[in-house]
Sequence to fold (243 residues):
Amino acid sequence: MNLTGKNAVITGGSAGIGLATAKLFAENGARVTITGRSQTRIDSALAILGTQATAIPADVASLTDLDALSAAIPDPIDALFVNAGIAHALPLDQMTEKLYDDLFAVNVKGAYFTVQKLAPQLRSGAGVVLTTSNANVMGMPATSAYAAGKAAVRSMARTFSAELLPRGIRVNAISPGPIDTEILSAGMTPEAATRFKADRTAENPMGRLGTPEEIARAVKFLAFEATYTTGIELVADGGITQL
Fold:
């Protein structure tokens, strides 16, 4: 699908799934605005994305930053990918208040207010995509706080959809499984990361990790092509929650 003339906003677009999606959108002609918290990563992303992209440094947990983001995007938005997120994998007895608050500030509060602040700029027919996770339905050890936050985001896909549908705006969620990105093994030692990725590969029905590009294609479908679809969570996890 040619996206020439379309405007897309991607939070957390400087790395991983967000960057892969920004690249796919830009390659298909869309003008893309990405956000990120690291200027170094933003600069690297813009070098990859070229002239079709602009970047606005922003922390989605900060409503001040989200107000600034909204003010910096004058054009109507055709696609909003609410993707910014962090991960902390800790068992219940090791989770701290600070890590819990950080997770919910970015993954839940950030997602909620990103949609609230940018919703007025979404045009009729626009698509919103929220990033959830297969962790929100699996009961995986050491993911209690992270998974709870992603379950909240999955709920938002339904309620936002109901509220925005009268304006012709669709809201859906993409639920990735284990994707070969930095966040998959965030906070682990190299040895632990290798073991973790090997375990995730071994238990997956497809026998491999997913790629950011595979998720990007699913996001493009939800954002632009799934015109009779709203309120769903599209699972892209190699079958691990289904088989």
Notes: The beta strands are 7-11, 31-36, 53-57, 77-82, 122-131, 170-176, 233-236. The radius of gyration is 17 Å. The domain at 7-235 is CATH 3.40.50.720 (Rossmann fold).
